[in-house]
Amino acid sequence: MQSEVVLSVRNFRKTYGSLTAVDDLNFEVQRGEIYGLLGPNGAGKTSTLESLEGLRKPDGGSLNILGVDPVRQPQKLRNLIGVQLQSSGLPPMMTVEEAMQFFCAYHGVPARTDLLERLNLVEKRRGQFGLLSAGQQRRLALALALAHRPQVLFLDEPTAGLDVPSRIELHELMAEIRADGTTILLATHDMAEAEKMADRVAILLRGRIAAEGTPAQLTAAGSGLTKISVTSEANSLRTDEIAFPAVSQRLVKDEYAVFYSSHPGQTVTAILAYLEAQGDVLVDLRVERPSLEERFLEITQAQ
Questions:
Q1: pTM for this structure?
Q2: What pLDDT is attached to residue 54?
Q3: How are beta strands 282-288 and 226-232 bridged, if at all?
Q4: Which of 60, 141, 233, 290 pairs with 150 at a CA distance of 20 to 30 A?
């Protein structure tokens, strides 16, 4: 089956006076895809999202969501997209129930009490927005973004302020709506979240894409070093005097000696032989492929 492009960014440029926030940005997002936008503060993520949402006017290039220009056709855009912002801007006195009724009326759909149930907000339906916890406010913002069943969903730091059960619940919900064909554009600083949830990611630096691909593709394109973390009873590995084969970098983190190896089999064998020769006892050994966070740091530090 041929994939369908639902969101297209072509030669997009956004400036603020003499500052160029986004410079010649290009990417496409397919239907039913979770596409992650990653980057440090000031990389251009927010400017890109706000322009796609019709909140800012591009200074160059073109934006397209399901054939709709976000700036020129805002009325058509509003029912196509759902937006969960970091700050919803709801009146502090408005109740959860009132907020849902208001947003559903705006989109001309029945109130979605099912979303309040799904996001554990039913008990707070008469609670005022200003009295909700940060996590509850984030969950309400997501419920409102999904109220009209948008085809494209924008999530800006969706799990910020959430506890672990709420994060798991949100990730499950993201997977469900994606399975239903909803396209998700996810902007996050949480590399583990992006690695777990996103089909593809783009790393933005100074308004340009520095790297793009699946999380696996990006991590494989890095230095390719495997992380080996070891701790032992006598801590005999926590010294710079030992040279193990294929290790290009080493550090001590908490109680672990950490080695970055191009040939983990050789390195692990040598480490175990060294521990035995020292009469030291292995407590824990972990072998991990490079994470998206480590690849992100590698890319950003190289620029």
A1: 0.80
A2: 93
A3: antiparallel
A4: 60
